[in-house]
């Protein structure tokens, strides 16, 4: 794990389980594993919201932190938290425009 290598779901699951077990210092390593996914999704959402890339990127990290504790052996669970947070940003921004 780590570096520029793309981890498997199993490797990410082991990393998350270690974090859940109390090794919170591994959050940075987990972030490095999913950071490109967050950046890709932030770029995809930018045209739809009046938010900066940095705001969405930061929201992606917060979503990751929130997803760790309830995580249950499926990387798509992290993506669910990311999509939910971004959707709340999109709809919140739309409501502010009304």
Folded structure, characterized:
There is one protein chain. This protein has 98 residues and is mostly helical. It has a single domain, classed as Orthogonal Bundle (Rna Polymerase Sigma Factor, Chain: A). Helices cover 70% and strands 0% of the residues. The chain has helices spanning 9-20, 27-45, 53-68, 76-97. The longest helix has 22 residues, at 76-97. The N and C termini lie far apart (46 Å).
Number of helices: 4
Sheet having the most strands:
none
- SSE order, as H and E? HHHH
Terminal CA distance reads 46 Å
CATH architecture: Orthogonal Bundle
* Low-confidence segments: 94-98
Q: What is the total tally of β strands?
A: 0
Radius of gyration: 14 Å
Kindly name the structural category.
mainly alpha
Total discrete domains:
1
Report helical residue fraction: over 70%
Bulk shape: elongated
Defining key terms:
mainly alpha, Rna Polymerase Sigma Factor, Chain: A, 4 helices
Please provide a brief summary of the model.
By secondary structure, the chain is mainly α. The protein is 70% helix and 0% strand. The chain has a single domain (9-97), classed as Rna Polymerase Sigma Factor, Chain: A (Orthogonal Bundle), CATH 1.10.1740.
